[in-house]
Every structure is written in C-alpha cells, then in structure tokens.
Write a structure and sequence with these properties.
Elements (H helix, E strand, L loop, with lengths): L2 H33 L5 H28 L1 H4 L3 H23 L4 H21 L6 H7 L5
Amino acid sequence: MDKNYEFSYKKKYLSTLILDGFISAMHSHKTLFKTLYTENSTHGMAIALAYLTEAHNYYVNAQTLLIDNVELLGERNEFDELFHRFSVYNKEFLTNARTDHSHQWSDIEFRDFVESFKPVAELLNIDEDSFWINKALSSDKE
C-alpha cells in the first residue's frame, strides 16, 4: 500500500473517530440535562449513558489507533488533553449518576472537554466552521 495513501486513510479514520466521539459525548450531555428533572428521567438517563458509552468506545479506538501509529501525527499533547478531559467528564457523569448527586460538575467537566476538542479539531481539520463546538456549548438541550 502506498505510504501517502495509508497516512491519509489513517488520519481520516482518526478524524472520524474523534468527531464521532465528540458528537456522542455532546448527545450524552444534552440528553442528560434535557431529561434530568422530567417525569421519565430514568429513561433519559439510560439514553444519556448509552451515548456516553458510545463516546467512550470511539475514544478508546482513537487512542489505540494513535498508539499503534505514532508516526501518524507524532506524540501530540492535544490528543492527551482531549482523552484526559473526556475521561474526567466520563467519570464525573458516572459518579453523579451512581450517587444521585447534582450534575453541576458533569456540566463543568463537559465544557472543559469541549475546550480540549478545539485544538484537536483544528489539527485534524474537522469541524472547520465550529458547528459541533457551537452546538455543544449552546443552551438548547436537544
């Protein structure tokens, strides 16, 4: 396989994993806050947790791809920060769901995660018009 094609393919696949993980995390956050205090919050929480699990899977796959292909983009702090911020959001969400605590910190950690996505999106040339970033930070809880 041509090295340039292989590099291009892997970078595109990494970009897809990163963006899909971001979108799933955004859906987990929006679903959580949309249904948190509604009559059927258990159903909404289950859906939010499913989105969170989906995002986690995308990011585990992205981390694995990067580790197995260091030559792809080199060791970049932007990715380490993104994966770390997602992990913090993930743990905060799960802890608050398990202990039935307020999700104020889930929201704070999600916003930090969104901020860590910006340099990665720029590096990979995804979300060039900041559509997903703006949607994630908007107050509508669709």
